[in-house]
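Figure 6 in text form: structure in, sequence out.
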């Protein structure tokens, strides 16, 4: 039976309400803000919301003797990699506060695991999540003030629906095949399946997996696909300047999670996945 506790991860009283009345076997920690541009403008908010709140969650887990954690991290921990595709051994050199705050949270989890040998965890580094439930039960609806932060999937649909007058492509001079940045777009339903796959394989030291498709798509290619799916020839304005803290190209090597857990993305057709949204 689903039990919902409406609260704030940063408020200890709310954590106690979540943990206090029922036995908790494991925690899957999704709760965090996740906009690169916003993190550059408001870095302290990200260190508090992402890093500090994760530490508070670990403390609550210790108080209630909960010893299993799956943590939602990000490919932003890698920054601008020297080699592609990105493996779990790629050096972590984040270039924005969002990526840094996630990496610091990862470090806190690893250090906690060193000090507590009966604590098991898994860290999943997502690539660019998009899409909605294929059956239409849930979808993405960001706060309106975050629309300007440049998440391309939401911006494409806002333009197609007439919520904004034009779609702005930010950054056209990256060293990529068409000048726009390249991302690995992973469907949200595939992401759910990855969490279910890893939950039975948490370990100490914490295991680490990339979660993506292994395929890079440029922003221009994404926009063209969105136009075809919606049937709307949206007005596109390109600006040379990229979002603050952005990086040129990232896509995953997902061989580790495929070989060890048997997981791989099912929704790899970009237009099909956009159709779900």
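Output sequence:
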């Amino acid at each position: 039976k689903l039990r919902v506790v409406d609260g704030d991860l940063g408020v200890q009283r709310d954590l106690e309400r979540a943990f206090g009345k029922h036995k908790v076997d494991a925690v899957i920690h999704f709760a965090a803000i996740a906009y690169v541009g916003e993190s550059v403008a408001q870095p302290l908010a990200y260190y508090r919301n992402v890093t500090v709140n994760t530490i508070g969650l670990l403390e609550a887990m210790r108080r209630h003797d909960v010893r299993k954690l799956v943590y939602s991290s990000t490919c932003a921990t890698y920054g601008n990699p020297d080699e592609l595709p990105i493996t779990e051994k790629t050096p972590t050199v984040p270039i924005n506060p969002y990526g840094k705050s996630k990496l610091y949270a990862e470090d806190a989890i690893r250090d906690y695991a060193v000090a507590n040998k009966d604590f098991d965890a898994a860290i999943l580094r997502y690539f660019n999540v998009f899409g909605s439930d294929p059956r239409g039960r849930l979808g993405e609806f960001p706060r309106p003030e975050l629309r300007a932060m440049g998440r391309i999937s939401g911006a494409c649909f806002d333009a197609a629906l007439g919520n904004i007058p034009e779609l702005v492509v930010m950054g056209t001079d990256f060293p990529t095949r068409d000048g726009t940045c390249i991302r690995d777009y992973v469907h949200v339903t595939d992401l759910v399946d990855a969490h279910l796959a890893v939950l039975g394989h948490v370990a100490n030291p914490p295991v680490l997996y990339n979660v993506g498709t292994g395929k890079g798509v440029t922003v221009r290619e994404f926009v063209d696909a969105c136009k075809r799916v919606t049937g709307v020839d949206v007005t596109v304005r390109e600006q040379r300047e990229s979002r603050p803290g952005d990086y040129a190209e990232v896509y995953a090597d997902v061989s580790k999670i495929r070989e060890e857990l048997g997981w791989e993305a099912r929704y790899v057709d970009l237009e099909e996945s956009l159709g779900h949204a």
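Caption detail: The mean pLDDT is 93.
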